Amino acid sequence: MIQASGVVICLGYILGLLFTAVPFGGVWVLILGIVGAVFLRRRRITLTKALQKTKAAPPNWQTNPKPIIWIVAGLVGLFASLYFQWRLPQPEKNDISLFVPPGNNNNQEQLAIVRGEVASTPRLTRSQRGQFWLQVKALDEVKKESNSVGMSKGATGKLYVTVPLLQATGLNPGEQVAITGVLYKPKAASNPGSFDFQKFLRQEGAFAGLIGKQINILEEERKWGWWKIGERIVRSQVRWLGIPEGPLVSAMVLGSKAVDLPYEIRDLFVQAGLAHALAASGFQTSLILGVVLGLTRRTRRVTQFIVGSFALILFLSLTGFQPAVLRAVIMGFAALIGLALRRKVMQLGSLLLAATLLLLFNPLWIWDLGFQLSFLATLGLIVTVPPLTQRLNWLPPAIASLIAVPLAATIWTLPLLIHMFSVVTVYSFPLNILATPFISVISIGGMISALASLIFPEAGSALASYLYHPTHLLIRLVEFFAQLPGNSIAVGTISIWQLLAIYALIISVWLMRWWQQRWWFASVIAVALVLIPVWHSASSLFKITVLAADTEPVLVIQNQGRVTLINSGDEGTGRYTILPFLQQQGVNQIDWAIALHFQSDDTSGWLEVLQRLPIKVFSDYSATPDNILASQAIQKELPKSKGIYQPLSLGQTVNTGSAVVQLINDQLPVLQMQIQNQSWLLVGNLKPDELRQVLKNKALPHPQVLWCATESLKDLVLALQPQIAIAPNADLDPKIFSELSQSQTKLFFTGRDGAIQWTAKGEFEAFIQATENRASVL
């Protein structure tokens, strides 16, 4: 009874945290608890009366929780929702984010000097800058007029800092520094599927960032920290293994968050579906306990408990107290306690207890993806591996276990991964089977090397050198699977209701005998829940999306499964804007791409897209001597996906089936489009004299939808009078805003409103506003 009651109460707490996604979530959990108590009480009364009539033996109620326990669980859920709101990070009265000048979010930058303590080891970003967290203590503003330092202000809070790489080299946690740079407030996601930087910082308890230009060390105090031990291990393993093998071994031992792993390797493992190998969690914890208990098997149980506990605490300290590691370590302690007391440990109860303790420590982890995946994967190993192994009893036990473990983890984590990333990694299951022996050898060898490096670094390096060949082979294996055709398939975003329905099927197969016998039927329903809505949307959807892509007009036209992409911007736009959007929309092929460069001849965005998605027809309006090398690079990539390169000249018409496109001026430039019954005009950044001459000559048609640079917005709107005008940013004089508001044109700014979408219903919708409306409904 105690165990069942504890399970119900723990579930009530976790459910209360999950229900924070809906209004009055805690109240709903309390209502569910009351309903459960009433239902259970009536069921008991009915069964008791029936047994009295038949004079049968009374049932043993001790195995079921009493009705009062359900009410207690509901109250705990209500407390959890209130506790979650109380623990949400909020800016303090003197938080550094409150001192960010409003102009810093535009083109005007106000320098500031921020003083504080370095709170993390600097990491390398994709843009080759050093990044670290700073605990703020004071702020000095730099006056624009005299470039002098103003009065110092007391400031607090956590700051996300990026600086030139050389400035961050040699910087250590605990040092007191003064950083000169530009403060800014993070932006929310501007495009569907893109990274929400504002949300990320809020989860870390920060509300502002700093683009540093110079660092001055005020107090070079060498404080001791666990990071020094981790740094010693990494240096020892990298010394003879080299890069990328050395950092990869260290990542498998300490976790990727504790190691500056090259982004090429990180992306490779993620793309192949092997990202969990880089996250220190339950797998490494099991290996540690297995090795420790194996080495101490002839000692007393107390000795095994002490040595095992020390190993777990050391491992936890080195990895930086990550949620997944904390969960695994708590379960490891439960196993050690069971060993010491000679009692069998209930793994499912240990998992639930571990999750509850972690969420009591930090309830915000309930929405941490790493925590969610770790919990689900472990749950799958506990409840799904045994029945899978039983069904595979015709295989040798080692092979059956090798298949059952990754399959169980995949079943429980795949729906959440689809919901978050809209992608299915096709070959991840066979890759996990083949990679598990390599990962085991590398992890065990890496741990032995790490322990040796703490005593004698050269010995650790020598031991790590024996891991070169298995690590190198693992990288080659992952590269092979990542480059296979159709490795990643975008299936589009599934709603929260689809996600809950799929997990309801998985839980039904776990708990109900009827569904266990018809697991194949549940699998078919789950696949249908994902694919049928995607197919229906793709076959009937017509939508135009103007992505928020700085000063470049980037358009995606979706017409009943056919996709046209106009413009790509730079490499960052291709990687962080276009690809995430297409992935979220379930797009696996671009039917027609049209390249024209409004601001530059940079084609790196196209190359980034081509490496991930095939393009059937590539029409290039910008094939000039200035960008001939870039055009050749694109032509080299296209045949890999059986694409066709089509150079176009000024005035030549392109009919994609979704739109009729024509470049009517390549010097300014100006692109005219006819999409269904709507005319669009994309106008490049014109100089004032060029703009006046074009308008004077009446060289531009009158469109219904206009895209233009912000500097040209006023003149073009007043002259062409479109129904809709879209510009990159809203950095306009208030007088111009007032003048434009008197016109009949509706204005959108992608820098302020995010992506702008138009559907066949004839309505334009701003992504940020639509997101806020959906959030207010929830």
From TrEMBL:
<feature type="transmembrane region" description="Helical">
    <location>
        <begin position="348"/>
        <end position="367"/>
    </location>
</feature>
<feature type="transmembrane region" description="Helical">
    <location>
        <begin position="488"/>
        <end position="512"/>
    </location>
</feature>
<keyword id="KW-1133">Transmembrane helix</keyword>
<dbReference type="InterPro" id="IPR025405">
    <property type="entry name" value="DUF4131"/>
</dbReference>
<feature type="transmembrane region" description="Helical">
    <location>
        <begin position="519"/>
        <end position="538"/>
    </location>
</feature>
<feature type="domain" description="DUF4131">
    <location>
        <begin position="26"/>
        <end position="216"/>
    </location>
</feature>
<feature type="transmembrane region" description="Helical">
    <location>
        <begin position="68"/>
        <end position="86"/>
    </location>
</feature>
<dbReference type="GO" id="GO:0005886">
    <property type="term" value="C:plasma membrane"/>
</dbReference>
<dbReference type="InterPro" id="IPR004477">
    <property type="entry name" value="ComEC_N"/>
</dbReference>
<feature type="transmembrane region" description="Helical">
    <location>
        <begin position="433"/>
        <end position="456"/>
    </location>
</feature>
<keyword id="KW-1003">Cell membrane</keyword>
<dbReference type="Pfam" id="PF03772">
    <property type="entry name" value="Competence"/>
</dbReference>
<keyword id="KW-0812">Transmembrane</keyword>
<dbReference type="Pfam" id="PF13567">
    <property type="entry name" value="DUF4131"/>
</dbReference>
<feature type="transmembrane region" description="Helical">
    <location>
        <begin position="6"/>
        <end position="39"/>
    </location>
</feature>
<dbReference type="InterPro" id="IPR036866">
    <property type="entry name" value="RibonucZ/Hydroxyglut_hydro"/>
</dbReference>
<dbReference type="InterPro" id="IPR052159">
    <property type="entry name" value="Competence_DNA_uptake"/>
</dbReference>
<feature type="transmembrane region" description="Helical">
    <location>
        <begin position="324"/>
        <end position="341"/>
    </location>
</feature>
<feature type="transmembrane region" description="Helical">
    <location>
        <begin position="302"/>
        <end position="318"/>
    </location>
</feature>
<feature type="transmembrane region" description="Helical">
    <location>
        <begin position="274"/>
        <end position="295"/>
    </location>
</feature>
<keyword id="KW-0472">Membrane</keyword>
<protein>
    <submittedName>
        <fullName>DUF4131 domain-containing protein</fullName>
    </submittedName>
</protein>
<feature type="transmembrane region" description="Helical">
    <location>
        <begin position="401"/>
        <end position="427"/>
    </location>
</feature>
<feature type="domain" description="ComEC/Rec2-related protein">
    <location>
        <begin position="253"/>
        <end position="515"/>
    </location>
</feature>
